[in-house]
Structure formats: C-alpha cells, structure tokens
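Subject: Interface between my chains keeps coming out wrong

I've been trying for a while to get a sensible model of this assembly. When I model each chain on its own everything looks fine, but I need the whole thing in one frame so I can look at the contacts. Pasting all components below, labels as-is. Any help appreciated, I'm running out of ideas.
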Amino acid sequence: VSKCRESSEITAYLQGEGTEEERGMLRRHFEQCEACARELAQFERAFGALGKIETVEPSPDFQSRVEQAFLKAHPKFAPKPKFRLVRAASIAAAVLILAAGAMVLLTMSAKSGKDEILATMPPTPIPEEDFQYRTFPKTALPSRIDASAWGEALAYDQRLMAAAQTAKPADKALSWLAARQEPDGSWQGSDAGETIELTGLALLALSHSEEHGLAIRKGVAFLRSRQRDSGAIGGGTPESHAIATLAMQEVAIRTKDPAAIRVASKGIDLIAQQNASGPWGRGVVAGWHYHVLRLAVASGDRALTGALVAGHEGLSQRKIKEEPNDADWAASIRAELWTDPKPDLKRWAADVSRLLVRSPIPGTEPANFSKNDLRLAYFGTALLAPLGGDAWTKWWGPLQAKLAKTQAADGSWPAEFQSGKGQVYTTALCALILQTRDRVPAYEE
Amino acid sequence: MKDIWSQKDDAALLAAIQDGELGAFTALVGRHQRSLINFFYHLCWDRQAAEDCAQEVFLRVYSHLNTYEPQAKFTTFLFRIARNLWIDRMRSAAVHGKPLSLQAQGGGEGRTLQDRVASRAPSPVEILAREEQQDALRRAIDQLPEEQKAVVILSEIQGMKYQDIGEILGVPVGTVKSRMHTAMDKLKDLLSVAELS
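Reply #2:
Try treating it as a single job with all components included. I did that and got this:
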C-alpha cells in the first residue's frame, strides 16, 4: 500500500475530479511512483467491475402509474373539458380545426382585420379566489379632486402620445427576444408571476417594432389568457401586473389591436382603483403604476386625471427621499415627476443629484456583474431623460457606453448581468433602457 | 403534446407544472424515471420497491416545489428528495424490523431467468456467470455503510460530480471525496476476491 499523500487522491483522480493543474500534478506523480501506480491499477479494476453493475429499465407503465397517482393527489391537474371535447371530436372535425388554425397562422401577419381572431380567443378561466388583489375594494374615483390642474400637462401628453405611436427600426436585441418566445406567446420565468413579468418586459421592448407583429400578437393573446375578472394579469405581483399592463397599453396605442385595448383597459382600471385616493404602492411599484396612469390620461382617459393629481399630492408629501435603495428611490421620484403637471426643471435638477453618485452598472466584466442594478438604470434613465440638462448628459454617456460594450453580437446581454434574473430579463430591460429616450421626450426641446 | 414538453429543459417544465400543466409533470417523470429507479434499485435490489420509492419522490417534487431554487440543478433537488425518502424508509424499516434490502433475496426480482434469455439470448453458462458476478457486486456494495453506499451509487453509477453529491447529501465536497475513497478502498479488496472478469 502506498504511503504517499497522493494515494488518497486516486479515487477522485480516476473519476475526473479536480482542476487540470491538480490532475496534471497527480499524473506526473503516478508516473514516477511505483507504489501509487500499483494502487491506481487496483482501483481502476474495482471501478471497472462496478461499471458492470446491473441496471433496470422502468416498467412500461411506470410513467402512467405516476401520472395517475399524481392526478389522484392533485385533481386540479386533470385535463380541462375543452381538451376532452377535441379528443371526442371526429377525425374530420380535428382536421378542419387544424386547417383553420394553419390559416389563422398564415394570415396573421400584418393584416389588421385578422386581429379580431385573436381578440375573440376565449381567455383561460382562472379561479378568482387565489387572486391577491381581491382585498382591494372597487371604490369609485373620488370627486373632490380638482382635475383642472392637469391642463398644464396637456402639451407634454401630446408629445408622449406621438412618441408612443412611432414605429422603430429593426434591432438585433428585439430579434433575439422574439426568437425566445414560447409557442404559447409567453416568455417563460421560473413561476407564473415571473412569466408575466418577463412577457410584459419583452412585449414592452417589442411593442414599437413593426418587424415583430406576430410575436406581439401572440404575446397579447397570452397575457389576455392570463387576465382575470378583476383585471389583474396573472397571479404575480403588483409589479408584474403593472409591467404587463403598460406593455398592453403601448401595443394598443400603436397598433389599435382590439384585444390589447381590452386587456389594457381592464388592467388600467385595476391600477386606477388601487391609486384612486393617492399612491398605493411604493418604490418601483409606484414607478410603474404612475407610468401606466400617465399614459392612460395622455391617450384620452381623462377621467383618470384625478388619480394623477391625488398621486402627486401623496408622492410629494411622502418621505420618499428616505427610500433605502436607489432603484426604489429613483422610481418613486420618477412617479412624482410623472404626476407633476408643470415640473420646475431647476428644482428637479437639484433633487436628482443623488442618482449621479454611483453608476447603476459598475460591472462590465463578469466578475463584477453582481453589482449591477438594472432597475436603477431603467428608472434613473426614465427620470433623467425628460429633465435633460447636465444631469442627463452625465448619466447617459457612460451608461450608454457600458450597455454597448456588454451587448453580445446576437443582440442579447448576459444572464448574469443582473444576478438572479436570467437572460430574457436582462436583454429586455437593457433594450428598454436604450429605448427610453425615444419613448420619453424631453420637457424642453 | 408530449413532444412539446420533451424539448423543454427542467426549469421550464417546473414552471409549467406550477402553471398547472400535467403534460410537463409527465415529461419530467419520463426524463428522470430511469436514473431515479436505478438509484433506489442499487440501494435495495428490489425493482418493485425501487419503483414505489421513485413514484413517491415524483409526488414529493410537486409538494416541495416552493423550496426549489431555479439556479440550482434539478437533479440535485430530485436526488435530495430521494435521499431523504430513503432515510425515512430506512428508519421506518428499522422500527418495523423489516430492512428493505432484504426483501429481494438474490436480487433481480420481477425479472425471471426467462426474461433474461428472451432479451439478450446469452448461453446458460453466460447467464450463470453473469448471475454470480452480479451477486458478488451486490454483496460487496451491501457491505458498505449507508453513507458510503450513497456516495458510490451517486458518483460511479449515476455519474454525478462530487460537488453535486455534496449538495444532495448536505456534506462538504471533502467529505464526499473521503467517503468515496474509503468505499473504493474496501470495494477493491472485496471485488478482487470475487474476480469479476
């Protein structure tokens, strides 16, 4: 038996463990040491024998037995009646359905009349009881608020709308995103809520693209299928609902897709009710909520002006400057700016200086990616782009350069660019950050 | 329907299961059934018991989904559940005085000699030699303490890396390495006696 320290490494060595360097050192030792070489050969034989161990194949019915046991424990997984209907239909009927489906796909390209087909697709019924918004009463909008104050903001609203209606040229990040869309129209996350968030972000990024009409329509159909009676999209978070609603709004404004209009209206309604008498959410939730509401008002939903006025009242009174993290702070401040009918640019320029202290994307090398905060980058950009001036120049120059540097040749950004989020998230959000200037016009030309 | 799911990775299947897709669950079972059944088979040498355990693990996967971290490998998650189930069964067998691994004296339960002849058509001498070889292997593996047996099965039979095994068993990589070495040290002596050619 070998007395060498290296002999205890033989097993790991034979199993391919360790770094190349460690393995190289061991290899050289084993070549020179007779005792170790002998032991190595014995271990090799033992491994060889172990490799002959009998393995069994699963019984042919194992999979179906497990499926049955699973269904017994969780009856809610049982196939829905509509599938049973299809199965019961005659082969001829099935062929007809398939042929009709193929026709829909073939004719779905940019022809607006065909949008009706997706618009009439029935939504998937989802039980209302597991819905987290249900605790919010559907209160009417308060009448005490004087909405006439909004008059000042009308001119900017018109420019906002003009920006929302503009089609954008092809972009490789968008092609990358479109190629990642699932057959059901979603962009998959690790759970239902994240799927809504990713689908909303990807669709928002794609919403101005003429090139990806089909992807947009499929995304709209997916989000529509996830909308509940309350107006909530999916069983996710207030944030994912707001992102999905904003995406529907942008699609609705640009394409006039009736399905998108319907989903957006119900989604906006819910957010308006939540924020009827002042800000309901804080941080990034408020950031998304007031973006949705402002765009709704700009697109002609004047009844919601009251919610913006109430929001501004609440946001400017709130001690939002004490928000602990920069992303929430930037989003809150952005919501305050967004509800301000006549922003005083000088005062605002002084208020946003906190944003210029540190970069939202300090890491452009994989080792430092974990320090990045893409939500801060997004809301910071959305806040500073309309303000313009010195703060904007200082913010945008380096940020734009860093985004350009880290974008891959295929148009995507690395999954690790924001820790724990995945590549659809990073690519959609980076694409959105780059689009901000086109979406949010400056207050002063 | 099956084909759609079989193209998805484990993470996508898990997300679809959370969305209530039965097809995704069935596809996940199809993908991992063989390795899971064999994991239990090499612990108890009883094909029926192995399938029962594997079925229980798949059912537990769903109820444990809330503890799954998407960054982690699904197989690590799966085998951690399998390992815990095995410990539960061992404890309960100890209480009831019926060790699972003794249920299948001689092993290969559910597979008759006829099955083997029909599937591979080796000569009777070959069959006998193979039976003896397998018996020797089983006896050797059964002589290992439980914690070493698990490492050998996961590492050499399931082909997992030490890092993943450490996560499954909840021990440092160094411990996996030393358990593996100690186990193989024993096996090399036991197996050389059996002379498995």
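Reply #3:
Confirming on my end. The radius of gyration of chain A is 28 Å.
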